[in-house]
Amino acid sequence: MDMLISIATAVSFLTFIAIVAWAWSSGRRRANRESSLLPFGLPDEDRVAAQLRGRP
User: Fold this and answer.
1) Is 54 left (phi over 0), alpha (psi -120 to 50) or beta?
2) For residue 6, what pLDDT is reported?
3) Domain coverage including residue 36
């Protein structure tokens, strides 16, 4: 049973390392940059609230 737990832990750790390597790879640089700017593309909350209330 201990061997099975050890193998599962090692596989999980290797999967984590693979995901981190993929996320930080140079091929993802453009997608990461675009994703980091998404929150700034949202409309202003005050402007949206005013439009919902019927004020420009």
Assistant:
1) left
2) 97
3) 2-53
